[in-house]
Write a structure and sequence with these properties.
By secondary structure, the protein is α/β, with parallel strands linked by helices. 46% of the residues lie in helices and 11% in strands. α17 packs antiparallel against α22 and α27 packs antiparallel against α30. It is elongated, with a radius of gyration of 48 Å. 42% of the residues are buried.
Length: 1216
């Protein structure tokens, strides 16, 4: 980063003036400049008991009761101590400010016309609760009020040297020595008459506003120019950096946020509750650090920064962010990490991830790719075929539309027109089974009568006579009965051949082996190694088989013919006997030849597609029925010209096969569209599969294995990402040590002293500092004190931005050239804080615009809206709809499926009372719940919130009183680290999270039996926001304790009663949203099959879970290809399944083709996974036995619309 200072130019004067004015108002009335006596929020030790005060000023722990011994005064001091301690904890927790001090000495400039009353010295104080008392201890080092010196210079022109003043202070003696006051008096005697007096007051003090104002400079900073409206945001880097390094899981939105940040963009991020806020910031910090950028993280709450630090440490990046509150420890952690870092294997793992991602991506790309010609995808084809199969009357045809015509029929209009015309002609009333003239073809319609007559003649005459005669022949020679006309021809040809042979040869020729004779008589080129003498002998023997006087031209051919005849005879004859010739074969052969020719005439007109094989090869009985049909079923030929024309048009349109199927099925006009759709979608599916070039319908296990391989490779890459960042930082660190050894030694000496201040380290070792602390994390109120003015950063990340203003973050923003602002204005506002504890703090003031609200109006906005809470969101649907416009994306939990609620309403039965706030019965009920939780669920953190400040104080007092008898529970109230038990008001909640929350309303019915006119903080103008914050603070469960019912909150004059009434109603009668959506046919089919196997199923359990299957306490989400949700492969195949498993679900992945091809196998696999023992032997899936009447649909008044018959057939529509 450039070392040049940012030029100080005046821009947007109005904005800068406004911001400076807001800075000066931080903390409200400033007791450092305008001190006033306030017994409500101060402990006055001016009149403390001498013995106790002497002990206290020496720094030894002293009980408050030892300092203030008068009972009445002690009671007041104790109450003030509680308020001061509560205020100190709140300011420390929520704003990172240390505010507990004892002020000693006072300078009052009122006499000189200045409304300034300023303490002189501030002593840090520790205030520790000890049951019904407090233990106080005083720091051994005082500081001079930072407002004092500037005020004296402004009023009198005198310069107060703080070191000179502190010289007069002696540790362990009087906290405000007279010499201190005399020193101030000596400076002002000649120029004014300020009143100097002694005070000893413990209260809350902070110099944050003073320091921020002193650090304020008008700047030409690009971030400030954006926020002031003087600069238009640059959208050229909106796409960001592709594939940034990740050190933890990240969804598509988180990845986009990191990419934009790496590209240098400033933008706002709306972080909805539970949606990966901290995780996103960790990703940002790691990626920016890996890019070599310095990052300043601003967050008022120390818990936010501590959570960030812990999260980074868990992934191996401890000390990456140096906290202002833990600088020494974080620097030691960073050095340790740098020294231990080793090279990472990121690039090779990235290659492996990319390869596995490509495999999965290709599968889904092919699955969802829309074909340019057909305009549909394989996914759509499967869905449509499933829809058709699940319809009430599913289409049945198995036809295919010609591939070259599919694109022509994308909208089916033309095809339907043709089919309707054919239907009107009766084309589908008579099918191939009804008439063999189906789809007959004639050159001239005038041929039809002659062909009909021919068919009648063959049926009534020729066929039967030939059948009788040939049957007699076969019986005579004991042949196998002929099966077809072709057999007739073959038999007669054999008989004729035998007759011709016996005319020339003796019958013995059929009894002797002819092999050698055939070899001997073969032409010379065909002769074998047979000797000449043997050949001559065998030739002579062959001639002996001739009848006397007979001669054959070619003995070799004649012998081969005889051998063939003998083989055929042996094949057809049922008994072993020599060939013989039946009488009358010549006449029969002539008749048969005529019959065959006439069959050929008919064959020319018949459709070969529906009448196959040809007539002469048809079985004789089938031929008989065909001839009968040709003779009798002739109505189909009545309007032949019109039919022929329509058939021709159907064939040309590629619908010929479909028209045959429709005729065979006798399809009615109403069913034409469904049948056409089925044929088109089946044809489209086959065509798309061929064009995809991949085995989408192949190994289903391989599909799942590829997805699992991708998920694992990405998880491995993420783990290596943190190591990669760590190694890059270590390389930079070691290089800095080599180049700047002097600075390295200086840092070493500082760390040996176990003290480290960021500004000091930056001043003494600036180069080492940058490599050691690429990320600095602090409260925006601390920036002027912990960072030097020259410490600059590339990026400022503002956290909890909805709860702070631009003015409060100004010092941090002015040190960076890019800003990313996170916030959620549904649960936070820039309310600031009040330093003093005052009796009445209910006055409502005008709040400044939050930095998040300002940023989202001038910068691009990203929204984190995918919930990652592994226990689900308490009252998720209510919170989402009431406060977030249904923008949060929740995955339902397994507990919600089984009806387990994460909220409970405890009603307090209380009598009517004159005082409606903080009823005794409600106090008792809440304390009982707290002790019950501490006893039975100590592993979960607990937070108690209420709408009444008085109720919170009474609950705290009652709890402390109850603890006297329950000392064994003290460990719980001191445990849970940063989620330590707390009783607070809903107004003081700010991004507070606990496992369980108890919300006690704190108000009951008045003496007239009605609700009070004010519901405390719920009736505040921000009451809805306070309540939302309370609800989202519960990680696992919320218990609402109320003496008011929803029916009591009907008075419209009571501000806030509507939101409270709706919340109470939501808890007492949870009304889950009904999901009304069509169920995918394949999912509906699978659900039925699972139910038959004994699995409980719910379709559309939520908008994100299409099918849930359960057995006992085991429940699984079943997801086919189209049910996978997410913006990228990582979300679909790794993050969402992982999230569902963390919510208690089993996750079962079902590839669509597997579900489409074999739904029964899928159902059995799911049932087995859920613990049902499905026998290997197929069991009846349906009730085959007749059921009693009371078990039938009719007995219950339901329609009889079983889907069982279709499931029995179990034949997916794509099977041809």
């Amino acid at each position: 980063m450039s070392e040049s200072k940012i030029p100080e130019l005046e821009i947007a004067g109005d904005s800068f003036d406004l911001w400076l004015s807001e800075i000066k108002q931080i903390g409200g009335s400033d007791p450092l400049s305008h001190f006033r006596d306030n017994s409500f929020g101060q402990i006055n030790l001016e009149r403390a008991h001498p013995g106790g005060l002497a002990q206290f000023v020496t720094g030894r722990p002293t009980l408050l009761s030892n300092l203030v011994r008068d009972p009445l005064s002690f009671s007041r001091a104790l109450s003030a101590a509680r308020r001061i301690k509560s205020k100190q904890l709140s300011l420390s927790e929520h704003f990172g400010l240390d505010t507990l001090y004892m002020a000693s000495g006072l300078v009052d400039l009122s006499a000189d016309g200045k409304e300034l009353r300023m303490p002189v010295l501030l002593w840090p104080v520790n205030l520790v609760r000890k049951q019904d008392d407090f233990e106080l201890s005083l720091s051994r080092k005082a500081i001079v009020n930072p407002a004092l010196a500037p005020a004296l210079y402004a009023a009198y022109g005198v310069r107060l040297n703080k070191e000179d003043l502190l010289v007069h202070v002696q540790v362990g003696s009087d906290p405000i020595p007279i010499r201190v006051l005399d020193h101030i008096a000596s400076l002002t005697d000649s120029v004014g008459s300020p009143e100097l007096r002694r005070i000893l007051v413990i209260s809350n003090f902070s110099s944050a506003a003073i320091e921020l104002a002193a650090d304020f400079r008008r700047s030409d900073n690009p971030v400030l120019k954006l926020l002031s409206g003087d600069l238009i945001v640059d959208t050229s880097n909106e796409l960001g950096v592709a594939d940034p390094i990740a050190v933890t899981d990240s969804d598509a939105t988180q990845t986009k946020i990191v990419s934009r940040a790496l590209a240098g963009a400033s933008f706002a991020v709306e972080s909805l509750p539970g949606c990966g806020y901290t995780q996103t910031v960790v990703l940002l910090i790691a990626a920016l650090s890996h890019q070599g950028k310095r990052v300043l993280v601003l967050a008022p709450r120390r818990q936010t920064l501590n959570e960030l630090s812990d999260r980074m440490a868990r992934i191996g990046l401890q000390g990456l962010g140096i906290r202002s509150s833990s600088t020494w420890m974080d620097m030691i952690g960073a050095i340790s990490r740098n020294e231990k870092a080793k090279p990472a294997n990121y690039s090779s793992l990235a290659t492996l991830r990319d390869s596995s991602r490509e495999q999965v991506s290709n599968y889904f790309a092919s699955f969802s790719k829309v074909d340019g010609e057909l305009g549909v995808s394989i996914e759509q084809a499967l869905e449509q075929l499933s829809r058709l199969a699940a319809s009430r009357k599913p289409p049945l045809n198995e036809a295919r539309i010609d591939a070259d015509q599919l694109g022509r029929h994308r909208d089916l209009t033309f095809a339907m027109t043709l089919l309707r015309q054919a239907s009107e002609l009766g084309e589908f009333e008579i099918g191939p089974e009804d008439s063999c003239w189906f789809r007959a073809r004639f050159e001239n319609p005038q041929e039809i009568p002659a062909r009909i007559e021919l068919a009648k003649a063959l049926h009534q005459g020729s066929f039967q006579s030939l059948a009788d005669q040939l049957a007699e022949f076969t019986k005579t020679v004991e042949f196998v009965p002929a099966q077809s006309v072709t057999d007739w021809v073959s038999y007669l040809e054999l008989f004729v051949g035998v007759r011709e042979t016996l005319d020339k040869f003796k019958p013995e020729v059929f009894d002797r082996p002819l092999t050698e004779l055939i070899f001997a008589t073969a032409p010379r080129k065909d002769k074998s190694v047979m000797s000449g003498a043997n050949r001559r002998r065998l030739k002579k023997l062959a001639k002996e088989y001739l009848r006397p006087g007979m001669h054959v031209a070619d003995m070799h051919l004649a012998l081969k013919e005889i051998q063939s005849q003998r083989d055929m005879w042996a094949r057809h004859c049922l008994v072993a006997k020599a060939p013989q010739v039946p009488l009358g074969i010549a006449k029969a052969q002539s008749a048969l030849n005529t019959f065959v020719e006439e069959l050929k005439v008919l064959q020319l007109h018949l459709d070969s597609g529906t009448l196959n094989p040809v007539l002469v090869e048809q079985p004789l009985e089938k031929l008989r029925s065909i001839l009968q049909s040709l003779a009798e079923d002739i109505s189909i030929l009545d309007n032949y010209p019109e039919r022929a024309m329509t058939q021709s048009r159907l064939d040309e349109a590629g619908l010929g096969q479909l028209s045959v199927e429709l005729a065979n099925l006798h399809t009615t006009k109403d069913a034409l569209l469904a049948e056409l759709e089925l044929a088109w979608w089946k044809s489209a599916l086959e065509t798309l599969l061929q064009r995809s070039g991949s085995s989408l319908a192949g190994d289903h296990n391989q599909v799942v294995a590829n997805e699992q391989r991708f998920a694992q490779s990405e998880a491995d890459l993420i783990r290596e990402g943190a190591k990669t960042v760590a190694f890059e930082l270590a390389t930079s660190w070691k290089k800095a040590l080599e180049v700047f050894p002097t600075e390295a030694q200086t840092l070493k000496e500082l760390l040996k002293l176990k003290r480290a201040v960021l500004a000091e380290v930056q001043t003494l070792a600036p180069n080492i500092y940058k490599s050691l602390a690429p990320v600095v994390m602090c409260s925006p109120y601390e920036v002027p004190t912990v960072l030097s003015r020259g410490d600059s950063f590339d990026v400022a990340i503002v956290l909890d931005g909805a709860g702070s203003s631009i003015a409060e973050n100004y010092s941090g923003l002015a040190r960076a050239s890019q800003a990313i602002i996170f916030g959620d204005d549904a649960i936070a506002a820039a309310t600031g804080f009040s330093l003093e504890c005052l009796p009445d703090e209910s006055s409502e003031r005008v709040l400044p615009e939050s930095i998040f609200t300002a940023a989202r109006s001038v910068m691009p906005l990203e929204v984190l809206k995918r919930s990652y809470r592994s226990s689900g969101q308490v009252l998720g649907d209510y919170v989402n709809s009431e406060f977030y416009g249904d923008r949060i994306i929740f995955e339902p939990s397994r507990d919600s499926y089984f009806g387990l609620s994460n909220s409970l309403l405890v009603k307090v039965a209380a009598a009517k009372a004159t005082e409606t706030e903080s009823l005794d019965e409600e106090v008792t009920q809440v304390v009982d719940l707290i002790f019950s939780h501490a006893t039975w669920s100590p592993q979960d953190s607990l937070l108690v919130a209420t709408a009444s400040q008085k109720h919170a104080e009474r609950l705290d007092q009652a709890l402390q009183a109850g603890m006297r008898d329950k000392a064994h529970l003290a460990e719980f109230f001191e445990g849970h680290g940063r989620e330590k038990f707390e009783i607070t008001t809903i107004q003081d909640l700010a991004h507070r999270i606990a496992d369980r929350v108890i919300f006690s309303v704190g108000f009951g019915k008045g003496s007239n039996g009605s609700a009070p006119k004010s519901l405390g903080l719920i009736s505040h103008r921000d009451g809805s926001r306070y309540l939302a914050n309370c609800l989202v603070s519960a990680r696992k469960h919320i218990t609402v304790v109320s003496a008011l019912d929803a029916v009591d909150l009907v008075d419209p004059s009571i501000i806030g009663c509507d939101v409270l009434r709706e919340m109470l109603g939501e808890i007492s009668k949870p009304n889950p949203k009904a999901i009304e959506a069509d169920v995918n046919p394949m999912i509906a089919d699978l659900a039925i099959r699972l139910t038959k196997l004994g699995v409980t199923t719910r379709t559309n359990f939520s908008s994100r879970l299409k099918l849930v299957a359960s057995v006992g306490e085991k429940a699984a989400v079943v997801e086919p290809d189209w049910g996978l949700l997410g913006y990228n492969l990582s979300e679909r195949h790794r993050l969402r399944p992982m999230m569902l498993r963390s919510l208690g679900w089993d996750y079962i992945r079902v590839p669509s083709f597997e579900l489409f091809a074999d739904p029964e196998l899928v159902a059995r696999r799911i049932a087995i996974a859920l613990g049902i023992e499905v026998s290997k032997k197929p069991q009846p899936l349906f009730e085959m036995e007749p059921r009693a009447f009371e078990d039938t649909h009719s007995a219950w008044g339901d329609p009889v619309d079983s889907n069982d018959q279709r499931l029995r057939e179990d034949k997916p529509p794509h099977w041809g």
